[in-house]
Amino acid sequence: MTDIIIVAIIAVIVAFAAVKGMKHMKGEGGCCGGGTYKAKKKKLDKVIAKKTFLIEGMSCQHCENRVHEAINDLGNTSAVVSHKRGTAVVEMSENVPDSAIIAAVEKAGYKVTGVK
Q: Which pTM does this prediction carry?
């Protein structure tokens, strides 16, 4: 009888982990401590430049929010970030060096692999 109870508990734990794992692989859920929070969009008065940064390491909405806020906090920048595509499309109202954007993303814990 004890063996059956232990097997049942293990089966429940494995099923729960499988469901959470599937959500994580789809980019849902809070793998980094995220939740339902969505970063606020930032509107620039004028846009003089637009660049796409390729970013590795984002796996969920929380990761997306961290990168979004890191770039928007620079000033003169507005980002649209996609963890599924691994990109951040950055609009600028003044010239902001790529190195400043890369540094902000890397400080948030992600790796920039290219700029288009």
A: 0.70
Per-residue pLDDT tens over the stretch 37-62:
677 778 888 999 999 999 999 988 88
What is the DSSP secondary-structure string of 6-60? HHHHHHHHHHHHHHHHHHHHTT-S-TTS--S--PPP---S---EEEEEEEES--S
φ, ψ (nearest 5 deg) of residue 11: -65, -40
Task: Evaluate the CA torsion angle 101, 107, 109, 111 in order and state its sign.
Answer: positive
3-state secondary structure of 90: strand
The answer for 24, left when phi > 0, alpha when psi is -120 to 50, beta otherwise, is alpha
